[in-house]
Amino acid sequence: MTQAIAKTTQTTTGNFEILKCKECGAEYEPKALHVCEVCFGPLEVKYDYSKLRLSVSRESIQKGPNSIWRYRQFLPVATDNYIDVGTGMTPLVKSQRLARRLGLKNLYIKNDAVNMPTLSFKDRVVSVALSRARELGFTTVSCASTGNLANSTAAIAAHAGLDCCVFIPSDLEAGKVLGSLIYSPTLMAVKGNYDQVNRLCSEVANTHGWGFVNINLRPYYSEGSKTLGFEVAEQLGWQLPDHIVAPLASGSLFTKIYKGFQEFIETGLVEAKNVRFSGAQAEGCSPIAEAFKEKRDFIKPVKPNTIAKSIAIGNPADGIYAVEIANKTNGNIESVTDAEIIEGIKLLAETEGIFTETAGGTTVAVLKKLVEAGKIDPDETTVVYITGNGLKTQEAVQGYIGEPLTIEAKLDSFEQALERSRTLERLEWQQVLV
Questions:
Q1: What is the mean pLDDT of residues 53-67?
Q2: Rounded to two decimals, what is the model's pTM?
Q3: How far apart are CA 336 and CA 292, in angstroms?
Q4: 195 touches 315 (CB < 8 A)
């Protein structure tokens, strides 16, 4: 595999200027760097908003491509030579049956289970990261992943003609393993959890000089999540929702949706509004939810033990920033059991026809929990983010969704089976009513 060292003197012609430390404010050139050399805080891309206000309008955005790149002026790429594989502009579904089941009047589902090309929101962040990686001179790209990110990195690297080596925990769901291997990357299955995989990848990044989308390219990669905020605002008629509910893994998605809303306010594309931010975690890996409940300003790392492997990050890099956003917006962060996650997957499927993976089941289950606790106003415009497709995590629901009725190719066999199924359905409803 080709070894590639990043160039560090990229001249930018985009609307971003520097990388800035979120903790101490130290500033850096926009190169492949993700940690402050002064205080070890995370680095974030900073933009020239005065320039953006003069160059961007609702009309200019709507004239752009039907992908995340309609928001190109808000993304950290220096040229128009970005990688567009049709990522983004996924449906914002006005919920009917799930909303009625929960007692909500204005519930929307942002459905990234159908995002392209690999059916998760990670396609957004990878499209941005690899576009920037190519600008910085990388020819080999990589990532530490719980599955979806590996799928996206492998697929988009294949499209872009970049060498690719991705790292995953060795116990991932079969669909996610296959979903990476099909693109012919070098796939490393590491004996350990995600946090151990991530530590190994930090060493590899330093040794080989590859472009790791969620390590040395993380400031650019994370900006792709803003498009989930941009699209919701545009799809709601250039208005912000009242409340969002999103899954929490590292916490980056949560913080970047918030940043996206703030950037649209800053540039006059939407009216200012306090959007409440609520986050969802699995009880088997809920360090952010625990910090929120205990009113702590730090995260205690945990060892993951949950079926929701895609959000099972025991030491979340942006966890404390997610807690800050939930607090300052009067939101909440809740956790749910694996059994509730399975019920969340089934609930979304049977009411809206959307098959989500375990992260989405977690989010729907937390949405339900918040409604039952009176923490969501039925009149609020609430958006729930579904970030991945259930075909990737079929193991999670096997054994919980029944079996097909096997019949002979005869009418009487069909009639007997139909009556049996109706009897079973009546019994199930009686149990619910009891």
A1: 97
A2: 0.94
A3: 14
A4: yes
The Cα–Cα gap between 384 and 23 comes to 30
Sheet holding 243-247, edge to edge: 92-94, 106-111, 381-386, 243-247, 276-282, 333-336
Q: Are strands 140-144 and 163-169 parallel, antiparallel or unpaired?
A: parallel
Residue-wise pLDDT tens digits, 309-358: 999 999 999 999 999 999 999 999 999 999 999 999 999 999 999 999 99
Placement of tokens 């900006």 in the chain: 223
- Distance from C-alpha of 175 to C-alpha of 17, rounded to nearest angstrom: 40
Distance of CA 236 to the CA centre of its chain: 20
Burial call 26-49: b when 16+ CB within 10 Å, e when fewer: eebebebbbbbeeeebbbbbbbee
- Length of the chain measured in residues: 434
358 class by beta-carbon count within 10 Å (0-12 exposed, 13-18 middle, 19+ buried): buried
d(CA 268, CA 284): 41
Which residue carries 């909440």 as its tokens? 332
